[in-house]
Amino acid sequence: MKFRCSPVTVRKRSGGIAAAVLRSHAVPAGLLGLFLFAAPAAAADILVLDGGTLVVGKRTVRLWGIEAPTATQTCVTTTGRVWPCGARARDELRSAIRDEEVVCRPKARGLDVCRVAGLDIGALLVKEGLARARDDYQELEARARSARAGLWE
Which pTM does this prediction carry? Predict the structure, then answer.
């Protein structure tokens, strides 16, 4: 049986401790009207692995619609300068979620849309030129390319 769970809400407190609250309404495939409720998760830290991946408690959350560089990846500008694009994307994601409430909702299998103060953080990374667009963010990537931002320098 397959289950679809949503959403994940993470409230960050100052001091770096996060209280994770999972409000899951799981519906077994093929059984309409039957709802299973998961218990709220205990307090957990948010770990940012790279510009496109978070770990909330024991759950790995990959951001939908983007392809971010790995944390150790370097990029080369059109002028030949090498820069740590992976570390910069990771740091931008850390900065975006610092001391804020993060709400993640599944969009596709294994991929979530995560928001901070209503702002889609995947879209933010694409807009800043720190991730490539895979789906709805093509226009944001085109703007970042024309502005020669981030990966498009």
Answer: 0.71
Output the CA angle 37-42-43, nearest 5 degrees.
135
Determine the topology of domain 46-152 in CATH: OB fold (Dihydrolipoamide Acetyltransferase, E2P) (2.40.50)
Q: Show me where the domains of the chain are located.
A: 46-152
Average pLDDT over residues 46-73: 92
User: Which pair of tokens denotes residue 76?
Assistant: 């080369």
Interacting residues of 6 by C-beta distance below 8 A, sequence separation 6+: 24, 25, 105, 106
Closest CA to 39 of 19, 55, 57, 25: 25
Are residues 105 and 7 in contact, defined by beta-carbon separation less than 8 angstroms? Answer: yes
- d(CA 71, CA 114) in angstroms, rounded, equals 19
- Is residue 62 within 8 A of residue 111, CB to CB? The reply is yes
Summarize pLDDT for 73-96 with one digit per residue, the tens.
Answer: 999 998 999 999 999 999 999 999
Taking each continuous run of H as one helix and of E as one strand, the counts in the chain are 3, 14
Contacts of 22 (CB under 8 A, 6+ apart): 5, 8, 9, 38, 39, 40, 41, 57, 59
